[in-house]
Amino acid sequence: MTIWKYGDNVNTDMLFPGKYTYTCSTPDEIKPHLLEDLDPLFAKNVREGDLIIAGKNFGCGSSREQPVLGLKAVGIAAVIAESFARIFYRSSINQGLLLIECPEAVKAYKKGDPVSLDVANGTVTVGSDTFSFPKLPKEILAICDAGGLLPYTRLRLQQKKKR
Amino acid sequence: MNMTFAEKILARYGGEKHVQPGQIVTVQPDHLLMHDNAAPIISKIQPELKQYGIFSKKLPVIVLDHVIPAAAEKNAAQHKQIREFVKTYNMPYFFDVGYGVCHQIIIEKGFALPGMLLLGSDSHTCSYGAVGAFSSGIDRTEAAALLLTGETWLKVPQSIKITLQKKLPRFVTAKDVILTIIGDVSASGADYCSVEFHGAIAQFSVDERFTMANMGVEMGAKNAMFPVDEVTQQYLRSIGVAKTKFKPVHPDPDATYHKEVTYDLSQLEPVVAVPHSVDNVKPVSEVEGIEIQQCLLGTCTNGRVSDFQVAAKILKGKKIHPNVRFLLLPASRAVYLEAEQKGYLKALVEAGGTMLPPGCGPCLGAHQGALAPGERCLSTSNRNFKGRMGCKDAEIYLASPVTVAVSALHGRITDPRRGMN
After folding, report:
1. Which of B72, B74, B141 sits opposite A150 (nearest CB)?
2. Is the ipTM of this complex over 0.85?
3. What structural domains does chain B harbor?
């Protein structure tokens, strides 16, 4: 597993350049351009199960959802950041990409430290230290449990019809 | 009742008497904005659309603006798909290529009114706080879900109160105010928060409030708003909206704010956001002399008649610097026509400007006016992220229409207070 470490304010143009926004929309079209202008090695070397650790305001900028779709498609297990920009945060809930807001864990991380997650108990372990992160509210967990917003919406529409 | 604007409006739409920050409410927005990015999602929800139909044909406002006219077959196919979708469901609020930028259309056509709640699959949806609406950006998947169900969840945000005092000096504009604020609070300083502008706001027209609310997202805000006053009322009358059509929401005087800041506007100066982040703000005097190859006047941030008016006033009868490509991007067809009738476009084109069709143009780097490696653009738009105008080795500087027009004349970033003397 590789841990990709980035700084503050990783914006949506860094995650997925705007010039491709209206020509690439499927995961296969998105993948080669992920983080293209920030870290050209990322798209080449990222593997399923990798983690991203970043600073403040990860995902700021555009509402484009290619960054989230792309990170999900290449198998990023979670993005652990000091904080996230809100549209990106919402979009990740909608697409089922796991985001963990845990500034303590980000600050504790040094290159080479092993990092592991216990999502059920809401903890992240960096080296020998374990940090807890807040659980999502029940309304949002319901979307995550359904596998994202579209499956959740389908469920709700079916339930409404039955009633 | 000690509630902020966001708390009051989310209580109203969430069917609650009182709400507090962190609480989650389910809301039905008055309108849902979508643009070119609607295309990929329409295909994804075809089976549900066929089975359940759309929630309300009057919910979506769809504007083609991001890549118009289509730059390539793929864009053309997306536009076609959206037109067919609009036709199939007989949706009345569709604005095809040439009407303008979605946010301008929403305000200009009166889709956003005081006290309303709007969501849109574009980050600059926060603009509608200019007329006292609560508006916020979402992704396109959520827009698709809203098409089907008409509702979604929102977390009640904490609020930040920004009080503006005294008058702005000459050559310092609303754009300088918002850039200064973003520079101070940082790109994450208002993350998840609702931003309210108070104080001496009567000096700002709706156009100027639009510029400031539009950039709320550049400090992470969920929404940004100006309380409704006589300026708002007069604007709404001018676009033919009767007073009976809306119910403004005013924050309570005893509301609790997460943070309060005050600005003495008389002390502000023209500023520039330098590469590659919007909060990297410097007084223009500190970056004077930097050579520029492109200037962009327009976009949803600064593409209104008043913006073209100030630029035309500066450039009338003059010629821009030969090394500069000066791109003119009106925010809508209505702006284009009015600026044309008033002679502003003639003055700007005669000075050496190039007209682009009303839309997003070069702002997001998908077409029109892309930059080459090593080039610099001074722009009135809202983002200067690396690669934003199509090239990661180019630089984007953000400034007011005044600073952009004066700098176009000199071919270098120029302090308008000096460049005009």
Report:
1. B141
2. yes
3. 5-263 (3.30.499.10), 273-419 (3.30.499.10)
